[in-house]
Amino acid sequence: xxxxxxxxxxxxxxxxxxxxxxxxxxxxxxxxxxxxxxxxxxxxxxxxxxxxxxxxxxxxxxxxxxxxxxxxxxxxxxxxxxxxxxxxxxxxxx
Length: 94
Description:
The protein is about 55% helix and about 0% strand. It is built from 4 helices and no strands.
């Protein structure tokens, strides 16, 4: 059994790293970016990048620890099955 979508063959760690490095705009003018309204798509400071990357790694380790996703990349929330069971077991009063 293979992956359905070959485009997302990267790990979650690689996807987060690619996203953050793609947002790097060190040396560019933040004021000009604000004028053109593209400042939300960029990271202008190296220390900001380091803080974002640090907390992204914390988040990724939390996801793996709590097993909120499978390694294959499909979302799997442990509480979904229990929520469905609760909804099926409820009885409605007419």
